[in-house]
Amino acid sequence: MRKIISTDKAPKAIGPYSQAVEANGTLYISGQIPMNPVTGKVVEAEITAQTEQVMQNISAILSQAGYSFADVVKSTVLLSDIGNFAAMNDVYGKYYIQNPPARAAYEVANLPLGVMVEIETIAVK
After folding, report:
1. How far is the C-alpha of 60 from the C-alpha of 82, rounded, in Å?
2. In this predicted model, what pLDDT tens digit does every residue of 76-102 receive, in sequence order?
3. Where are the beta strands (DSSP E) in the chain?
């Protein structure tokens, strides 16, 4: 069974995709960028503030679907500058204190709307 997950507490999709899709007890969250869902604008700040907004967006989607950070099994982090890895990691680590998920992190040439970080997430019940 496939279920589309959507919440006003996370940014609306800016293209032909869903915020998240749940299938057979697995939640696939599309890459989240540091967009404030209330203003619809990108958080124009340094990497720590951008990462915090991304994690808040992920939290809202997890909650809407009935999941939590404890259910996350895999994250993929995309950074516009790998030099921001340590600062991003400090914020990210606050959300995964025990039993953190598997993760990959990459530097990429460009991210949507010129942001510094995008994170996609997979959670399992």
Report:
1. 26
2. 999 999 999 999 999 999 999 999 999
3. 2-5, 20-23, 26-32, 72-79, 102-107, 117-124
CB-CB contact of 62 with 95 (8 Å): no
**What per-residue string of b and e applies to 14-25 under the rule 16 or more CB within 10 Å gives b?**
eeeeebbbbeee
In this structure, what token pair is assigned to residue 67?
């999941």
pTM: 0.96
Closest by CA to 53, choosing from 78, 67, 32, is 32
Distance, in Å, from the CA atom of 67 to the CA atom of 59, rounded to the nearest integer, reads 9
Residues 6+ apart with CB under 8 A from 111: 33, 78, 80, 117, 118
Query: CA 106, 108, 111, 117 torsion: positive or negative?
Result: positive
Tell me the per-residue pLDDT of 41-83, one tens digit each, with 9 for 90 and over: 999 889 999 999 999 999 999 999 999 999 999 999 999 999 9
Q: Report the amino acid identity of residue 34.
A: P
All structural domains of the chain, each given as residue ranges with its CATH number in brackets, are 2-124 (3.30.1330.40)
